[in-house]
Structure formats: structure tokens, C-alpha cells
Amino acid sequence: MTTQLTQTKLNKLTIFDLYKHYAALESSFPLLCPESQELVKAELEQCVALRSEKIDRLYYAWAHHEDAVQRAKQEQDLLTNQRKHHENQINQIKRLIKWLRRAVTTDETSIKGNDYQFAFSELSNLSVEIRSDINEWTQKERLEFCVVETVTTTKHSVVSSIDGKVLEESTKPVTKSEIIPNLNAIRDAYKEGKQLPLGVKVSQDYSIRRKRLLTKKQITSSVDIVGEAASEYSSEFLSKLDSAGND
Predict the structure, then answer these.
(1) pTM of the entire structure?
(2) What is the C-alpha to C-alpha distance for residues 143 and 56, in angstroms, rounded to an integer?
(3) For FRET with 220, which of 46, 80, 239, 247 sits at 20 to 30 Å CA-CA?
């Protein structure tokens, strides 16, 4: 039984084409005979049903990608936390190695294990660690160990028409001042043996280089393994040559 007037495969149309097809049928409706009008009514109902289904699919797609964004954000947070965890672990290991350098092997330039070593080299500047609030320092300490840092940034704005004519132009400097520790003054005072503010620590810091150790035992065992592998390969290769020659 025929359920539509046209031969259009409605289920193949996009949502845009369904709207266009519906509008075309609707505009032609008054011009048709009663029998054709009944077919158009049925075809219009099919258009509405298919169109509504595709509109619902837009919602499903939206919700699907919205859920995917949330999962991606959660995964990103997990990865960020994991990265921070590993970075903290690395920093703790570095602090332990530096502590060993200072507390245990003060005369050594490296710490050696069986397979690896950590070599140290002094950094040119002393390390300054501040664990106190400079606002709680005395006035004398602030005068001696603090400086005022003033940063001025300039915002230049231009408003122009589409054809490039400048309609409005302004330049606004923004200045921000902040009291910060004077690290050089702190280092100099430390070298001179002066009293530093509470919570301020100065120490010699080191860069750490990691190196793989190649011991005689390791080299010998490696040579033996390579030699055995080469010997096995040579024997297998020669035996194949012999069998090929006999053929």
C-alpha cells in the first residue's frame, strides 16, 4: 500500500532535507486532489517522525560528548595529580641524595652504588630557603633583607572600523609594587656570618648528574654473553651452509 506521494526515500534524507521536503509538500498541499492530499498527509507524518528522531539524536550526541568531556576532565585531574605525586617523589629523592652529600660524604664528589652513581657539582649561587612570612620580620630585618619590586605593564588598546580606520586609541600603564626578599643581601650576610631573620636558611646547593657504572665484572659478563650468542649464530649459519652445499 502506497503511504506517500513522492518517490523520495525519506529515511535517507538529512534533517535539513527533511525540513525542506516537508515545506515543499506543505506548500503543494492545496493544489492536490483529495486522494493525493491523503498521501501527502501520510508523507508529512513520516517526515515529522523521522525529523523528530534525528532531533532526539542531536540530544543523545550532545549528552554523549558532554559525558566524554567530564570523563576527560576527571582523567586529566588524575593525570595531573599523578604527575605531581611523581614530581614530589623525585624532589624527595634529590633532597635525600643532597643530604647524604652534606651529612655523610662531605669530602666526596659522588655517591656510588653497584650500577649507578650520583655526581655532584656546586652551583654558583648559594641556595636560600625562606619559611617565614617577611611581614613578620622586624623593621630592621625588612630594611636590610628586603627590596621593593615595581613592575609596570602598559596596555595599548586600539578600536578600529572594519576598513581599518582608527576610532579610538588609548594607552594605560599599570604599576604594581611588592616587597620581596633580597636574596643577594641574604647570601652576603650569610657569608659574613651575620644573623639572618627567623626561618631563613642558606646552604650550598649542588646539581646532581646520574651516571651508569660499567664495572669490569659487567663488561666481562657482557662480552661472554655476546660471544656465546655470536658462537651459536656462527654454528647455525655454517651448518646451514654445509647442508646447502651437500644438496
Answers:
(1) 0.51
(2) 69
(3) 239
